[in-house]
Amino acid sequence: MDSFSLLPMPLIHFGVGRFSSLADVAGTFGRTVLVVTGSHALQRSGRFSALMDSLQGGGMQALHCAVDREPSPEMVDNAVSMYRDRAIDVVLAVGGGSVLDAGKAISAMLRYDLPVERFIEGQKDFMQHDGRKVPFIAVPTTSGTGSEVTNNAVISRVGENGFKRSLRHVAFVPDIALIDPELMVTVLPELTVASGMDACTQLLEAYTSPFASPYTDALASSGLEYFSRSFLAACTDRADDSAVRADIAYAALMSGIALANAGLGIVHGFASSVGGFIDIPHGTLCATLLAEATRENIARLRLIDDNHPQLQKYAKAGAILSGIRADNSVSGVDLLLETLYNWQERLCFPRLRQFGLRSEDIGNIVSVTRSKSNAVQLDDAAMQRILSSRR
């Protein structure tokens, strides 16, 4: 067994109805809370007003910051400048992955006077953050990114010189993650599909990563099992079933822990390069690229060794996701690809051209795409095939 290291974990509260205890959880950190949410969904559900009432009823001062898209450096800096002098005791983010990333970044920057871009990996004049932050509570309302248990916040700027990179430190792992499947029962079908495929991609990429360990393998395979039994149900006729939503929420939670400790593959490499070039939701990008990227990885592995350990893992994942016992690794791998392509067709994953990607853009994107944790090293031609096949 190779040596490995593990990131710290937040205190995790998981279960139906846990949202009602959120004010008590937040109150353990102090009296002033900054609540970060999306722009509309939580407010329309009535849960936002209930949360604010419970916080104020508990004697807390509750401030509110709304996020309407994936966080940019400017958004984070504006929020920090607005609340830096308010003596925030805890940042509480309730929303999808973008909201959690925004809250994580705000909590990390409230103790700094410098712009967040100075601390984003790969940016000019990069500085390593020292980990100082305001305590942070993450409450996901979608099942996808796993940001509730990771140590990074994804910050992006879209355009020709755009980027999608991480603000990262081991201290940025949330202090508390509260996961209540009831928050997900009203999520729209298209968002359920996109966020679910993000979780699936993370599970599969972490499972087949060269940096995986027995620990991450156990988490990823467990997440894949729960994902497989409820994903289609959550996207179709049982979307309002909290037990179904709990399965996908658990899968997303496992994906976050697994990716934080094993890394991610080429799909998430493209999430950085493509996501900084065109305005496309992260989960949608994962959904549309996963089948083709997996096919390219498998083809490359077969050229290296028909008994490659990563092929064995792909085969096990195929048996789990298809629900069919595989007689050998070849049939398991075939089951995996068949399942992924079936989902792609059945759930109508959009093509990249719908978000403005042109054929002439692909070469430039591939030239800046990196993925050291992919199951196998892919050359530029393979990466171009992945993007071209889904354009």
**CATH fold topology of the largest domain:** Dehydroquinate synthase-like, alpha domain
Count of helix runs: 14
* Topology as a string of helices (H) and strands (E): EHEHHEHEHEEEEHHHHHHHHH
Total number of domains: 2
Termini gap: 41 Å
**Mean pLDDT value:** 95
What overall geometry do the principal axes of the alpha carbons give? globular
Indicate the CATH class of the largest domain.
Answer: Mainly Alpha
- Across the major sheet, the strand order is 1-8-5-4-2-3
Instruction: Tell me the strand percentage band.
Output: 5-15%
Q: CATH architecture of the largest domain, please?
A: Up-down Bundle
Main β-sheet description = 6 strands, parallel
Low-pLDDT residue intervals, each spanning 5 or more residues: none
